[in-house]
Every structure is written in structure tokens, then in C-alpha cells.
Amino acid sequence: MMVCEYKPGLEGIPAAQSSISYVDGQKGILEYRGIRIEELAEKSTFLETAYLLIWGELPSNEELKAFEHEVRYHRRIKYRIRDMMKCFPESGHPMDALQASAAALGLFYSLRDLHNPAYIRDSVVRLIATIPTMVAAFQLMRKGNDPIRPRDDLDYSANFLYMLDEKEPDPLMARIFDICLILQVEHTMNASTFSARVTASTLTDPYAVVASAVGTLGGPLHGGANEEVIQMLEKIGSVENVRPYIEHCLQTKSKIMGFGHRVYKVKDPRAIILQGLAEQLFDKFGYDKFYDIAQEMERVVEEKLGSKGIYPNIDFYSGLVYRKMGIPTDLFTPIFAIARVAGWLAHWKEQLAENRIFRPTQVYNGRHEVTYTPIDQR
Ligand code: SDX
Asked: Are 157 and 177 in contact (CB under 8 A)?
């Protein structure tokens, strides 16, 4: 067997063969099943893109209608899941609530039938349909309110925004939200997708796959960065404070949230689209000083770290968009999960098609032949 050099963070090591998405980090290109994200963001919807990723081709009109219909009618969550969520502490993070709820959903569907296409489709539909309802339910219940029932006459994104505060969203806002989900749905072998594939490779159920991926997405180096970006912008507070803040981060070697990427050495193409969406929102719903702070940050970080290939990533502008929509900051990462669940499920399906359990090796750097010391002699 070939012995490979140890690479921290498995940098540059292929963990799977995949035809789901493609990134060119030097040119700033991202494709889903070969289609550029710019085109999908302009012409597609989240559910159509989810279908493309999971089943490999764009759906026909009938296939899309059938998929949308199934998702629409599986949005309600079981009252026992709701009752369980009511017992969660209101101070708990919504990502933890989501991880627990996604795992709990698996308790109701314990019959694992991984070779049956109908089982795969049912699981995909159920997870894509109910995850937004779970996120919205926890948001209301932690404030002491009852969850709002999903509305069958609203499409996927509009219904989620409606379930957050029982107001039908502005159509532009709902469309922009849907585009954000398209941009967040999939991104090759990122940490949470890797986690999903490792879990999938043990042939466990898709609820455990999604729950493990949700747990991985929440960290501040990954999806959790979008929440930290807003906290950082609030802390900076004004355009004049940007430069000293960044200089302080560089002196103390702390990470500037929303910047840098393992693969992109240019500005993340999703950040470019999200920035445009933020501008559309500000034009229609009013200026936001955080946008000026963000733009100044981009300028100063490029000046200081551009030579190292450190530019804004997806998490930098997504928070600004969600904030302008009035969404609470700690829901930004659960929303990332609402989108990414379709990407994880595409990888689950691909992993099952040619499965071999993940079992890498390690470089042992511990001791050998150590004798046991009795406790009274230590
Ligand atoms: C996502 O992988 C994906 O595809 C993820 C994602 C997806 O869609 O799934 O794109 C979503 O997770 C986006 C990333 C969100 N995280 C952040 O915004 C947190 C801040 N960024 C970083 O911590 C960092 O850039 C990572 C985690 C994104 C990437 O980490 P790497 O590849 O391990 O890089 P590194 O930490 O080893 O940094 C390499 C160098 C270091 O300098 P040197 O020691 O070599 O001199 O770049 C510097 C770092 O100090 N650096 C930064 C920086 N990011 C890298 N310096 C300051 N601020 C930063 N943000």
C-alpha cells in the first residue's frame, strides 16, 4: 500500500469521487452538476436545484411539480417532535435544537431500507420538507409561542419566512431568500459534507447522517461563521473602526470571520452574488450602515491579506442579507443547514451507490511498551 504524507486537515487529499459539484478555487468557479451557480441563481429555484443535485439532472416539468407537491405536503412535524422541542431550554442554540430534532425524526422511521429507491425518496422529501418547520418551531417556542402551521399555498421559501412570524413575506424578499438557499445548498467536500459521507458509509439511516452533518456545520470555522460575522460588524460599529480592528486581529493572530477559504484563493463566487442580493434589499428596504462597514472590511483585508489569497467567503455577506430580512442572528446557521441538507442527501445517495466504509489511518506518535504503574505509586 502507498504510504501518504500526513496532511493536517486532509488538505488536498481526495476523500471521494463525486459528480455533484465542482469548484475552481483559482478562478472562482462553482458548478452544480456542471451548471454554473450564477445561472442557477438567476433561473432556478431551491427545490429545482435540490432535485438536480440529488437525482443528477434537471427535472422535467412533471417531475418538478411532483417533487414540489410531495415536499409541500410533508411540511408538518409530528406533535411528539413539537412536544420534545418544547422541553428544550430556550437559551439553547437553535443549531443544537435542530441537530436533536433531526436525530429524533429518525426514531419514527427506523426501518432502514437503503437499497429501495422509494425509501431514499421518502427520506429526502421528509428531511427537506420538515427541517425548515423544525427551525421555525423552535424559534417560536423558545419565545413561549405556539409554532405556526405551514401554509400549503406558499412555496418553500415564502412558507419558511411566514412560519417565522406569521406574516406573508414580501415577494422580493422570498425570492432573494430562495436564491440564498441555492447558493448555500452544496459545496464539494466541505467539513459537514465529509461528516455526512463518513456517517453514511456506516450504512446508518439518513436522519443520523443529517444530524451528524448539522453538528459539524455549526462550528465557527464552518457555517457558524455567518453568525459571528454579524457579531463582529456590531462590535466594530463604524467604518473608522475597521482598520484598527483588522490590525488588532492580525497582531493577535485571530481569524477575521467571513474571510479565507481552504479552496478559494479569490473572492468566493457565492459572496459576489450575495453582495448583489444585499444591495437589492438595501435599495428596496433601506440603507444599512453594516454594509459600509463590510465593504471597508473587504478593502482593508484585501490590502493586508490579498497576497495570501484571503477574500470574503459565503458567510461574509449571507449574514447581512438575513439580517436585513429581520431574521435573528442565531438562525443564520440553521438556515444554512436548511439549504445544505439537500447537498448532504445528494452525497448520502452517491455514497450509498458505491459504498466502502471510511476508515483512514493515522500517524501514531505515542509511546510503546509502557508498563502499568499501580495507583499508589503514581
Ligand atoms: C464555510 O470548505 C467549504 O467549502 C466550506 C464552505 C461551504 O460552503 O461548505 O465554503 C462554508 O465554511 C466558509 C468558511 C467560514 N469560516 C470563516 O469565515 C472563519 C474564518 N476563516 C478561517 O478560519 C479559514 O480561512 C478557514 C477555516 C475558512 C480555512 O482554513 P484553512 O484552509 O485551514 O486555512 P488556515 O487557517 O490554515 O489559514 C492559512 C493562512 C494562515 O496564515 P499563516 O499561518 O500561513 O501565515 O491564512 C491565514 C491563517 O492565519 N488566514 C486568516 C484567515 N483565514 C486564513 N487570517 C486571518 N483571518 C482569516 N479569516
From this structure: yes
Q: Which amino acid is at 316?
A: F
Query: Catalytic residue numbers?
Result: 261, 315
> How does pLDDT run across 21-68, given as a tens digit for each residue?
999 999 999 999 999 999 999 999 999 999 999 999 999 999 999 999
| CATH classification of the domain holding 232 | 1.10.230.10
Cα of 98 to ligand 1 centre, how many Å?
25
Tell me: do 192 and 213 sit in the same domain: yes
The Å distance, Cα 259 to ligand 1 centre, comes to: 7
Residues 74 and 191 in one domain: yes
In a domain, 74, yes or no: yes
For ligand 1, atom 35: residue with the closest CA: 262
Residue to mutate (ligand 1; options 255, 257, 264; most atoms within 8 A of CB): 255
Q: Is residue 363 part of a domain?
A: no
* Domain that residue 77 falls in: 17-218+337-353
**What's the CA gap between 304 and 310, in Å, rounded?**
9
In eight-state DSSP terms, residue 356 is: -
CA of 261 to the centre of ligand 1 (A): 5
- Looking from the CA of residue 23, the nearest atom of ligand 1 is 4
Q: Among positive and negative, which fits the CA dihedral 314, 320, 324, 328?
A: positive
**Ligand 1 site: residues with CB under 6 angstroms?**
9, 187, 190, 221-223, 225, 255-262, 308, 310, 313-315
> Nearest residue CA, atom 26 of ligand 1?
261
Residues 6+ apart with CB under 8 A from 75: 129, 130, 132, 133, 150, 152, 159
Q: How far is the CA of 344 from the centre of ligand 1 (A)?
A: 21
Domain count, the chain: 2
Is there a single domain that holds both residue 156 and residue 284?
Answer: no
| pTM confidence score | 0.97
DSSP helix/strand/coil, 262: coil
Q: Are residues 181 and 214 located together in one domain of the fold?
A: yes
In a domain, 5, yes or no: no
Tell me: do 170 and 106 sit in the same domain.
yes
Closest C-alpha residue for ligand 1 atom 34: 262
What cell was used for 108? 419514527
> Phi-psi region for residue 298, left (φ > 0), alpha (ψ -120 to 50) or beta?
alpha
The tens digit of pLDDT for each residue in 226-264 reads 999 999 999 999 999 999 999 999 999 999 999 999 999
